[in-house]
């Protein structure tokens, strides 16, 4: 049962909100819920509702994702005549993933589940019987109640709506609360799930190829020596080394250089000195001993 809305909050809702967009979501044809859509729009004129039919895929609903831009408040209608009484947690349940995903996108306060087309023999018009059926429903399919703000059971929705007045009251409280509850904030970037679900085989192949190519590149880089061209001095031939080598100027060989010479370039022989008479110094012995000099 939805909580009681205070008078102050209700008046604030009436003054602040714009037309309230409500999406009746179902995989059945629109005619199966048309009576409910028409009556909901006129049942609460003070809420200014914009009620629209929203078609869900008939198969593989769990892999379908609603968009917050298309759906603001969701009433998920499920016919037991069309798809059996299998919402969540039971064999062939249709909404095990869809319902939690929708609650995550819209917020649990904006999700209602309405299971319809129960026969009158079910006795849902009796409060005690209705309560007992709801308790059994929750014990068997608890995820339905955990991922929505309101869950109800009723009769037909295609013509005159077979719903108890207490259900309409609970539905109005749900709509007011949903309108006053902001939607969850979205991250800066949220890739669509359908994009990856449809393309995950190709994505895995691309990643595998990239890993193989990267591994080969690393292996070749380790096994093949890198060629390094060593700069040489002017006049010498550049050499290519297979490993990085630092060559100092002393280790660099340079071919001998032949320099042409001329006679003027040849330095004088230091041992050969031309002499003259004037260059010969006097004999000191002859000067001190004249007789030895004459003899």
Encode the helix/strand succession as letters: HEHEEHHEHHEHHEEHH
CATH H-level homologous superfamily name of the domain at 7-180: Response regulator
**Fraction of residues in β-strands:** 5-15%
Distance between the termini: 162 Å
Low-confidence stretches: 1-5, 248-252, 261-266, 270-280, 284-295
- Average pLDDT value? 77
Q: What does the radius of gyration come to?
A: 51 Å
Secondary structure class reads alpha/beta
The tally of helices reads 10
User: And the CATH topology of the domain at 7-180?
Assistant: Rossmann fold
What is the approximate shape? Answer: elongated
**Sheet having the most strands:** 5 strands, parallel
How many runs of DSSP E, i.e. beta strands?
7
Strand order of the largest sheet: 2-1-3-4-5
Helical amount: 25-40%
CATH class of the domain at 7-180: Alpha Beta
| CATH architecture label name of the domain at 7-180 | 3-Layer(aba) Sandwich
Summary of the model, kept short:
The protein is α/β, with parallel strands linked by helices.
């Amino acid at each position: 049962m939805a909580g009681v809305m205070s008078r102050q909050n209700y008046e604030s809702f009436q003054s602040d909100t714009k037309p309230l967009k409500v999406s009746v979501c179902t995989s059945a044809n629109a005619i199966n819920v048309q009576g409910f859509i028409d009556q909901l729009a006129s049942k609460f004129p003070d809420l200014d509702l914009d009620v629209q039919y929203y078609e869900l895929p008939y198969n593989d609903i769990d892999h379908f994702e609603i968009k917050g831009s298309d759906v603001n408040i969701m009433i998920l209608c499920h016919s037991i005549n069309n798809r059996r009484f299998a919402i969540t947690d039971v064999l062939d349940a249709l909404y095990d993933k869809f319902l939690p995903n929708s609650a995550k996108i819209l917020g649990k306060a904006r999700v209602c589940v309405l299971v319809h087309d129960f026969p009158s023999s079910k006795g849902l018009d009796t409060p005690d019987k209705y309560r007992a059926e709801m308790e059994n429903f929750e014990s068997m399919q608890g995820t339905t109640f955990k991922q929505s703000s309101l869950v109800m059971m009723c009769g037909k929705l295609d013509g005159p709506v077979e719903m108890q007045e207490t259900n309409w009251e609970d539905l109005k409280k749900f709509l007011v609360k949903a309108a006053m509850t902001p939607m969850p904030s979205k991250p800066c970037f949220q890739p669509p799930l359908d994009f990856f679900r449809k393309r995950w085989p190709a994505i895995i192949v691309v990643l595998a190829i990239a890993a193989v190519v990267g591994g080969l590149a690393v292996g070749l880089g380790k096994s093949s020596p890198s060629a390094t061209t060593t700069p040489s001095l002017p006049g010498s031939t550049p050499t290519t080394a297979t490993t990085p080598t630092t060559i100092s100027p002393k280790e660099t060989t340079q071919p001998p250089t032949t320099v042409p010479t001329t006679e003027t370039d040849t330095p004088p022989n230091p041992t050969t000195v031309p002499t003259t008479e004037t260059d010969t110094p006097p004999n000191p012995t002859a000067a001190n001993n004249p007789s030895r000099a004459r003899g």
